[in-house]
TrEMBL record:
It comes from the Bacteria. Residues 34-165 form the YncI copper-binding domain. Residues 1-26 form the signal peptide. The lineage of its organism: Bacteria, Bacillati, Actinomycetota, Actinomycetes, Micrococcales. The keyword Nucleotidyltransferase does not apply. This is YncI copper-binding domain-containing protein. InterPro entries: YcnI-copper_dom (IPR012533), YcnI-like_sf (IPR038507).
Amino acid sequence: MTIRTTFRTTALAAAALGGGTLLALAAPLAANAHVSVTPSGTAAGSYSVMTFAVGHDCEGSPTTSLTIDIPEDVQTVKPTLSPTWDIELVTEGDRVSQVVYTALEPLPNEFRDTVSMQVLIPEDAAGTDLVFPVVQGCVEGETAWTEVAEHGEEEPDTPAPYITVTEAAGDAHSHGTTEEETEEEHADDEHAEATEASDASETDVLARVLGIGGLVVGAVGIVLAATARRGAAKQ
């Protein structure tokens, strides 16, 4: 059973942010412009933010949508809300199988834009490719970025975005199995740092008290010595 969940940006947010975002993202076309993906990380078993970029139209027709297929092995997907796109989640059972972005205003060829989503990279995927086929819909026509080339072959005309998964990181902070575990580890670190700072503060106060006490004792000793000398001189 396929279930669709749509997240819509309010008209106010679109009016306030849409124009500014498009102007900020304006850029010349690349010589080999595709729908590409840039991950924040590629380690197996880790969370990574996948940023998809679209920098051109469909042979002169502005872009209206991006339909991104999620690899079957990816079980956790959380799209980032956008001021310029409506976001629709297509699910099969408990798994997100597609994320559909619909532009609030068609994206002209003179501008580029990005969409992003957080995914959990499978733990057993090291050394393999995660492929995210994308269909770019336009006012007229569409372009299917879905072709996959075998390693060593030339890049096809409309390649599908993909990442190559690397070995799992040894650091627990970059390889947490859940977001909750990572948050708990950060909380433990912050508590330890606060405890160390408190201990250091207490040690510093004690040292100052002892130092002041020493000065007082020394001053009293000097006064007593001077008094003793005066008494001896009178005798």
